[in-house]
Amino acid sequence: MAAKQSAGLLLYRRTGSGIDVLLAHPGGPFWAKKDAGSWSAPKGEYATGEDALTAAKREFHEETGLPAPDGDYQDLDQIKQAGGKIVRLFALEADLNLNGFTSNTFEMEWPPKSGQTKTFPECDRAAWTPLGIAPHKLVKGQVEFIDRLAKLLHVEPPPEPPTQASLF
Fold first, then answer.
1. Pairing state of beta strands 5-15 and 86-93?
2. For 124-156, what is each residue's pLDDT tens digit?
3. Which residue in 5, 135, 155, 168 is deepest, having the highest Cβ count within 10 Å?
4. Given this model, what pLDDT does residue 160 score?
5. Is the pLDDT of residue 26 over 90?
6. 145: Cα within 13 Å, side-chain hemisphere
7. C-alpha closest to that of 93 among 15, 158, 26
8. What DSSP character marks residue 81?
């Protein structure tokens, strides 16, 4: 069986203090109280043979409710996640207004084993995040895309996220 594939957009904008990237936070009860290491570039799965950029634009719209901006997207290539999924992102400079943010929804049984089905947004919020903060916010498997974007833009990659020292 072929590995699942996801494609997404990593939008960035230049500000007076540097570069921001657009990240989305997953919706649903599992992610509700998580912040560090839980955000993602807006993305979603696509079928083998489907054009990855076309899929990335569609998924961006589904997850944000906003049309994917027009422009010359730069392919940041793909990364194989720890679980085997292959994620491919495309970068574009675009200062997108997030006022119209709204995400598509999914249903799941909640609370578990309750027999009740509840509806949740696929993404509960989106935010412009400074490039240096993005590695701390992103799920581990997407952090490399920030380094690739920094290289593309000829800026210093953000420092490695801090790790807690062992007490033993």
1. parallel
2. 999 999 999 999 999 999 999 999 999 999 998
3. 135
4. 59
5. yes
6. 35
7. 15
8. -
Considering only CA atoms, give the Rg of the chain: 16
Structural tokens at position 3:
């590995």
List of residues 6+ apart from 49 with CB closer than 8 A: none
Interatomic CA distance for residues 159 and 90, integer angstroms: 22
b/e for 45-68, b at 16 or more Cβ within 10 A? Answer: ebeeeeebbebbbbbbbebbbbeb
**Which 8-state DSSP code applies to residue 84?**
S
Would you state the structure tokens that stand for residue 148, as one six-digit string? 């690739």
Written as six digits, the tokens of 21 are 């990237």
pLDDT of 93 strictly over 80: yes
Q: Which of 7, 5, 15 is CA-nearest to residue 133?
A: 15
Tokens of 83: 């679980």
Within 10 angstroms of residue 163's Cβ, the number of other Cβ atoms is 6
Q: Which of 67, 68, 83 is nearest to 141 (CA)?
A: 83
Band of residue 161 on the pLDDT scale cut at 50, 70, 90: low
Residue 159's pLDDT is: 67
Q: For residue 133, give every residue at least 6 positions away whose Cβ sits within 8 Å of its Cβ, in sequence order, or none.
A: 158
